[in-house]
Amino acid sequence: METNQVITALTALGHATRLAIFRLLVEAGPDGRMAGEIGEALAVPGATLSFHLKELVHAGLISSESRGRNVCYRANFDAMNVLVAYLTHNCCAGSSDTSCSPGVATARAC
Predict the structure, then answer these.
(1) Residues whose CB falls within 8 Å of the CB of residue 20, separated by 6 or more in sequence, listed in order
(2) How far apart, in whole angstroms, are the C-alpha atoms of residue 57 and residue 63?
(3) What contacts 24+ positions apart, CB below 8 Å, involve 102-109?
(4) Hey, is 73 helix, strand or coil?
(5) What is the pLDDT of residue 102?
(6) Which of 13, 28, 33, 39 could be a cystine partner for 49, CB 3.0 to 4.6 Å?
(7) Cα–Cα dist 57/9, whole Å
(8) How far is it, in rounded angstroms, from Cα 74 to Cα 30?
(9) Cα distances (angstroms) measured from residue 24 to each of 73, 88, 95
(10) Where are the alpha helices (DSSP H) in 59-103?
(11) Which domains are assigned to the chain?
């Protein structure tokens, strides 16, 4: 992952509403959630929700799929895992203690 992509992703997640949306979609798993469901769950008005969803799509953290007049959004788990790997690439570098390294099994359990 390029540094600029990481900055874009972290900037997108640096807003409370976008972080909540992303976490909700991670929780939903591969089935995702419809835009209306996301708005209801987080009490975010439609226009505001649309703006935040667009930012997350632009950052590559979520994807969208049209279903008639509705849109389903899903977390991009590959992008999430690449971002975590980038952030922890040199975790505990030079140390023989691996207890600080992130749990790969935890990420895969998603």
Answers:
(1) 42
(2) 6
(3) 107/81
(4) strand
(5) 61
(6) 39
(7) 10
(8) 6
(9) 10, 23, 35
(10) 77-87
(11) 3-86+98-109 (1.10.10.10)
Using an 8 Å Cβ cutoff, are 9 and 79 in contact? yes
Q: Which residue carries 């390029």 as its tokens?
A: 2
DSSP 10: H
Reduced DSSP (H G I as helix, E B as strand, rest coil) percent helix, strand, coil of the chain, to 5: 60, 15, 30
Question: 3-state SS of 19-50?
Answer: HHHHHHHHHHHHHCEEHHHHHHHHCCCHHHHH
The string of pLDDT tens digits covering residues 35-86 is 999 999 999 999 999 999 999 999 999 999 999 999 999 999 999 999 999 9
Alpha-carbon separation of residue 50 from 29, 42, 74, 81 (angstroms): 20, 13, 14, 25
Q: Is 46 exposed, middle or buried (0-12, 13-18, 19+ CB in 10 A)?
A: exposed
